Amino acid sequence: MTCTAVYQKHGDWFLGWVEEIPGVNTQGATLSETKENLKEALSMVIEANRHMVEKSRPRGRAVRQSIRVAV
Question: Residue 58 has what DSSP assignment?
Fold first, then answer.
């Protein structure tokens, strides 16, 4: 999976967010810290989304496949 990370200096802080996935955003004192924080935030959001889907998925047979899209 490849996403677009955006970083912006705002005062003394760096802000970071992922354009394709709402809610994945962070900040840090340095650009390097912000990049690491953003990777962690993305992992946490994907894990939380999978957990929510797992809890609400109807029981029975289902087909799960990987999907790629070009944007």
Answer: P
Instruction: Decide: pTM greater than 0.70.
Output: yes
Distance CA 15, CA 39 (A): 13
For the record, the structure tokens of 48 come out as 């939380």
**Cβ atoms of residues 43 and 19 within 8 Å:** no
In DSSP notation, 13-60 reads EEEEEETTSTT-EEEESSHHHHHHHHHHHHHHHHHHHHHHHHHHSPSS
- Tens-place pLDDT, residues 47-69: 998 888 888 777 778 887 888 87
